[in-house]
Amino acid sequence: MPTSLIQPEFLVEIDYDKCHKCGRCVQQCGWGVYSFNERPFPDDSKCRACHRCVTYCPAHCIKIKKNDLALRDNANWSPELRKNVWRQAESGGVMLTGMGNDKPYLKIFDHLVLDACQVTNPSIDPLREPMELRTYLGRKPDSVGVESNGKGGYKLKDGGGVSNNIKLDTPIIFSPMSYGSVSLNVHKSLAMAAERLGILMNTGEGGLHADLYPYGKNVIVQVASGRFGVSPEYLNRGAAIEIKVGQGAKPGIGGHLPGEKINKEVSTTRMIPQGSDAISPAPHHDIYSIEDLRQLIYSLKEASGYKPVGVKIAAVHNVGAIASGIVRAGADYVYLDGFSGGTGAAPAIIRDHVGIPLEIAIAVVDQRLRDEGIRNQASIIAAGSIRSSADAAKAIALGADVVAIGSASLMALGCHLCQGCHTGCCSWGLTTQKPELTRRVDPEWGAERLTNLVNAWSHELQEILGALGVNAVESLRGSRERLRAVGLDQQTCEILGVKPAGL
Amino acid sequence: MNASIRAAFEDGAKTIVLNYVNGQRYIGTGLHGRDLRIEVHGTPGQDMAMFMDGPTLEVFGNAQDGVGNTMNSGKVIVHGSAGDVLGYGMRGGKVFIKGDVGYRVGIHMKAYEDLRPIMVCGGKARDFFGEYMAGGLLVLLGLNSRLEGPLVGGYLGTGMHGGTIYIRGEVEPWQCGKEVGVFSADETDMAELTPVLKEYCEDMGLDLDEVLSVPFTKLVPVSHRPYGKLYTYL
């Protein structure tokens, strides 16, 4: 039988003159690249360029290079397309991949620039003046009544409708990532960081591990079609409940956590037997219409003492009408996930070719809800490749209340975007359940790094607000006049509601 | 109404009788407590006993859609027919329906440790019975049905990867998903099934011997990893 036609993607080079022959590379690699016989020998074909060995080599003698094996140039058949055909011809299976869409689609955020103040209105220095990033997540009342507090001040009238909102100290939260797809230590890091930052983490569809119960007020608990781990207690532990209808990386596709990843702990948290596939069907079988969605929203509210309930959908065409239905069905927030969103496992072909950009989705949803006069009835969370505080600011200017970060938060914990999450071999101990790998993430260390990241972005957001001459993130939301487009066509500008630069 | 039910139970009530029920939704949703009991006279609305954990709910009338949705434990008895999507994602407890049931019944039922959901439907069922079933016991009897057509619709047990379905009578190959194996229930199977049917007959006032007079068909998944070979990891 002939060997595989697929050549290694990377080459692992070891400078044996420098090598201590300590074997740490062997120990660090989750992919099984190295064997050891007096000195380490790499098997290039297994390397995913995750750089764990490079980072931990005490002699700094490992280099990972691209395998620049020449393939005849062909504008029609990229090397990747050719390799995929070889792969599928060998296996006959659907290609899975982790992380977000890596195709060179137009990244609209990179074609939007923020306005800045000059002489007509002054900018603000956030180092000396207060700059408000606090955001309230949830349904706002149509009107707010105030009454005297008897001491010369005023307070909100009871039943003003804002009591159910969740206070966020900064408009950045962590995206849903399930326990099962990521390790428990990742979940702990996220929960601890969320508590310190006064923000939220999200369980994804894998249930909430008992160790995280104390962090409940900083957790959104997710209800997906598989209903994994969903019980009355689970619903009551969270600050809010999220119905996952779709996700950006794989719109219209269900989840599938392979039986190999369902160990004792994951099985307990998901409330399913060990070793059996955890299949989350694409549709919720009790949602076939907006009326059904309303039914589920209110069931969850009934079961949880009327906690905020949000709905997560993937960005797809006509998302404005869908979001309007969701808000009218009683959702307290709409979570929009763009097609660059990350995932632990998605069929590559779906991840790369289905869905629409987040930027467009935010703009049309915000506009539609405003046109219908119901924008106050729900918050908008935007996610799907928010890569920096600038992306966050632009998303907010387009109409989002809050942004959620998934890939960026994993990168804060060491992720090198090697896209092998679905294999369960993550050398950084993030997307794996192997105990020898998961212990590489110390929750305390992780929480500190996540806190640093969000704090840094929050400072940058304050600087951006200062440059725009506003002192609250509230003033930036949906303020598209503060954005200009560079290199976008007229129709895209119209859909975004953003003028081209110069106007 | 649900707020009053919860308040009454919190005040120490153990049994609540609801009369003239007409479409009120979420009765028993999220309720927990093993010794609680609700008697419903009339037709309750959707998502009755959703996420319920422990109580017993007895309906003297028909029920609508979503009975026992994601239920943890407890028991629902319906002395009439019920609608679609019964016992979706149900993890434990019992749902007994006397009459016919609609579409998507018992979808994604699952078992977990000592929790094992049991659903018995007395009449006929429509399509997608036990689809994606991941655990538990689902029984269809086909007694006294008011429905035209076959005992059960198509897509029976499609995507099934756990649990057992028993059908009183026979099913045709076209009705079954390709993930299920179809067998005649043998003595061991009947020994497992009979206590459940006995309890059902006692609750419904039916004759156990008559229920057992027709041979049962057993459906089990071919594999607990139906999609194990669908993907490539190359």
Question: Strand share of the residues of chain A?
Answer: 15-25%
H-E string of chain B: HEEEEEEEEEHHEE
Q: How many helix segments of chain B?
A: 3
In angstroms, what separates the terminal alpha carbons of chain A?
A: 65 Å
Main beta sheet of chain B: 10 strands, mixed
Estimate the helix proportion of chain B, in percent: 10-25%
| Major pleated sheet of chain A | 8 strands, parallel
What oligomeric state best describes the polypeptide chains here? heterodimer
Show the largest interface. Answer: A-B, 42 and 46 residues
Rounded mean pLDDT of chain A is 93
Number of helices of chain A: 16
Q: What value does the Rg of chain B take, in angstroms?
A: 17 Å
Which consecutive residue ranges of chain B, at least 5 long each, have pLDDT under 50? Answer: none
SSE class of chain A: alpha/beta
Number of strands of chain B: 11
